[in-house]
Amino acid sequence: MSLKVEVVGLNLKTPVMNASGVLEWSPEAARRLIDAGAGAVVLKSATREPRRGYDWPRIVRAFGGYIIAVGIANPGALEVSRMIKGFKEASGGAPVIASAAGFSPEDFLEVANLLEDGGADAVELNMSCPHFKGGGIELGQDPQTVYSIVRDVSGSLKIPVIAKLGVADKLVDISVKALEAGAKALTLINTIKAMKIDVYTKKPVLSNKVGGLAGSAIHPVAVRAIYDVYRETRAEIIGAGGVRDWETAVEMILAGARAVQVGAALIDRGEAVITEIVRGLEKYVWIEGMKNIGELIGLAHKT
Ligand SMILES: Cc1cc2nc3c(=O)[nH]c(=O)nc-3n(C[C@H](O)[C@H](O)[C@H](O)COP(=O)(O)O)c2cc1C
Predict the structure, then answer these.
(1) Ligand 1: residues within 6 Å at CB?
(2) Half-sphere exposure of 301 toward its Cβ, with a 13 Å CA cutoff?
């Protein structure tokens, strides 16, 4: 019985990894994730220029998760590129997936090239952040823009490109475009636009006012997104959104995901949640009498 999966041609010892944005810029934190059972690590999104992010408060608890508007705080793609070597060493052979964000196809191209130069094993293109003005979901909900970004980046890079998309009316069309343009996999989904208002100050709590909802509350939305996109494309999908235990991970895999990412639950519970999910998956695959977890992918589509 094995949890090994291949994602974008990379060998993962388990199909569980962190979601972008919840791993500090610290190779030691990556080592702890791998030791806990993660099959890969995903870095925070990097932009062309360094960004300090939005003012505090940037994160607030909400029913079933958190609302976040960090504003893609990062030291800039060149600096991130220099850090990747440390992450690779700390990950002991497990893939390091870097994440690129930007305001234009040119930005994505430059950032992704720097991340490849730094030694990343794959690049996830964050085209779905709901609170990144001028970038993020504003670009990622237009099929043609997604096509241009993915085409330019995957035409230029040797390493695999993963398109990270968020909920949008045309998600299936956008996914098809990303795949046609050369994406080897899709990460579905990002946080969902949301807001929290303080009833005493009578103002939005986050400095950016609007943020993205992460956590349990968005899990059914993510499962539906994965199911719809897998049904139409049979693409390699990495599921994200409210994964907090083996059951929420299995649901995504049955909908069509090859691997899952954990964001909010890592903030809540630290690496222990990764170990718990991995142990639960092992038990489930064994009880189901399967040799490999890959046998579960997309089973919810069988009639
Ligand atoms: C604190 C925080 C920071 C995040 N930063 C990023 C980021 O830099 N890039 C990105 O693509 N997604 C980012 N996300 C979104 C997550 O990667 C993930 O898609 C989303 O939170 C859904 O998963 P979850 O419900 O398990 O948190 C962030 C999420 C959180 C909670």
Answers:
(1) 19-22, 44-45, 66, 68, 70, 72, 99, 126, 129, 164, 190-191, 214-215, 218, 240-243, 262-265
(2) 20
Best of 22, 111, 139 to mutate for ligand 1, by most ligand atoms within 8 A of CB? 22
Q: Which two tokens stand for residue 134?
A: 């001028």
Tell me, which fold does domain 5-53+72-191+218-301 have in CATH?
Answer: TIM Barrel (3.20.20)
Domains in the chain: boundaries: 5-53+72-191+218-301
Q: Would you say 6 and 293 are in contact if contact means Cβ atoms under 8 Å apart?
A: no
pLDDT tens digit string along 69-110? 999 999 999 999 999 999 999 999 999 999 999 999 999 999
Question: What ranges in the chain are assigned the alpha helix state H?
Answer: 27-36, 77-91, 105-118, 137-140, 143-156, 171-180, 219-233, 246-255, 264-269, 272-287
Which residue do the tokens 């979601």 mark? 19
Q: Report the separation in Å between the CA atom of 31 and the middle of ligand 1, taken as the mean of its atom positions.
A: 20
